[in-house]
Design brief:
alpha/beta; Rossmann fold; eight-stranded mixed β-sheet; globular; binds S-adenosylmethionine; methyltransferase
């Protein structure tokens, strides 16, 4: 080895050095031979062979893992899966059990009178799943219709910019994001419009994550977040120039109550727009499969029930809003919203195995796998609802508080 190294470092005679072609071929050949013989010698040592095998297997698994993840999968480090949100590690298992029990449904009519306790369990839900969502989807916790040639991220941003345009968000305005998650939409909208955006979420863990990401993006002067319930807004009346709500109003026990709170904090003449999760006219409450799908969507997404389009419009009017626009953005997309769910679910099979083993070896808290199983069931139901066209997560309602 020693002599080979010395050999390779021997200066090339000047006559050869002046022939770049010879040098260009011979030198790499020598280096390859040297490397091969070094590897051969190293392989004679068993420990090195085993280490090389383990590194090889890990690298291959990682590459496959990234490949199946597609556009949506594996957005953060896998180590995030062991995080427990704002729940103490030892409370995680009890959290998912209580959650599953609360949201159990079977007749397509929601959780009944229990619905008034929904916010508490919505909070538990987001403590359990925020890291999963970030890991498997990204920082925007919503769907989007996708154009041909558009990436998943581009479709998400376009969907967010659309809602900002609906409420005419612009520089100098103060906009409310009702149910803001970890702030993916808030950051896009602040950049797109120049408006100041205040988000509200019921989940403490999301406040921490959002604050961190706002700082990282250099948007902490435009964006801020508060913890609280959008059913009891901690803001003065008539204080916002606009409000949007992305796939969050579906968690409200009574939609009109949420709309009334938003109405109260908006200035007269200001706009409010919401992407609602609703059943479509194709949903048939006498069809057992439709009912099961809707129940599974509600159970796996912390919903007290799933409402219809007429019910949402009635809630808007009850709150005092004028309806400016309403329509379903799921219709006519080049790539339908449920397609991304299908890709994510393919990746999720691997995550399912990983979470099971991480839990077994104590790398993730007890209950992590059960939480992932719950999310998988929800994903299947969402996909099927999209295929049948009985449900939409993007029914846009744009409303205005009268002058
Ligand atoms: C599906 S996530 C959507 C988050 C965000 N709009 C986005 O698109 O990334 C729903 C959000 O609504 C929030 N939420 C649900 N019920 C709430 C309540 N009563 N008060 C405040 N936020 C609530 C959750 O904490 C979560 O952040």
């Amino acid at each position: 080895m020693q002599c080979q190294l010395v050999y390779s470092m021997t200066p090339v005679p000047s006559s050869t050095a002046s022939q770049p072609n010879t040098l260009g071929i011979i030198a790499p050949l020598q280096v390859t031979k040297m490397a091969a013989s070094m590897v051969e010698k190293l392989m004679e040592k068993k420990a090195v062979t085993y280490t090389a095998a383990v590194v090889g297997v890990c690298a291959t698994t990682y590459l496959i893992y990234k490949k199946i993840g597609g556009d949506t999968g594996f957005r953060t480090s896998i180590t995030k899966l062991g995080n427990t949100g704002s729940l103490a590690r030892e409370d995680f298992a009890a959290g998912i059990d209580a959650y599953n029990e609360f949201f159990q449904q079977s007749d397509g009519k929601g959780v009944g009178e229990r619905k008034f306790n929904t916010p508490k369990f919505v909070d538990t839900f987001y403590s359990l799943i925020t890291d999963f969502y970030e890991y498997g989807w990204g920082q925007s916790f919503h769907f989007a219709p996708r154009d041909k040639g558009e990436s998943f991220d581009e479709s998400i941003w376009r969907h967010e910019e659309r809602i900002a345009d609906q409420i005419k968000a612009g520089a100098g305005m103060h906009i409310l994001d009702a149910g803001c998650g970890v702030g993916g939409p808030m950051r896009t909208i602040a950049k797109h419009s120049g408006a100041n955006v205040t988000g509200i979420t019921i989940n403490e863990y999301q406040v921490g994550r959002c604050t961190e990401e706002n700082k990282k993006a250099g948007l902490d002067t435009l964006c801020n977040i508060v913890q609280g319930s959008f059913l009891e807004m901690p803001f003065p009346a008539n204080s916002f120039d606009g409000c949007y709500c992305i796939e969050a109003a579906c968690h409200a026990p009574v939609l009109a109550e949420l709309y009334k709170e938003i109405f109260k904090v908006l200035k007269p003449g200001a706009h409010f727009a919401s992407y609602e999760w609703l059943t479509t006219p194709l949903y048939d409450s006498n069809n057992a499969e439709h009912v099961r799908i809707v129940d599974d969507i509600a159970e796996g997404n912390a919903l007290p029930d799933v409402r219809s389009i007429p019910a949402a419009l009635a809630a808007a009017k009850e709150a005092g809003f004028e309806v400016v626009f309403h329509g379903d953005y799921a219709l006519g997309a080049d790539i339908p919203w449920e397609q991304a769910m299908k890709t994510a679910r393919r990746a999720a099979f691997l995550t399912d195995v990983l979470t099971k083993w991480m839990e077994r070896f104590g790398l993730a808290p007890r209950g992590t796998w059960a939480t992932h199983q719950m999310l998988l069931r929800a994903a299947e139901a969402l996909e099927r609802s999209g295929d049948l066209g009985i449900f939409t997560p993007m029914y846009l309602v744009t409303l205005r508080k009268p002058m």
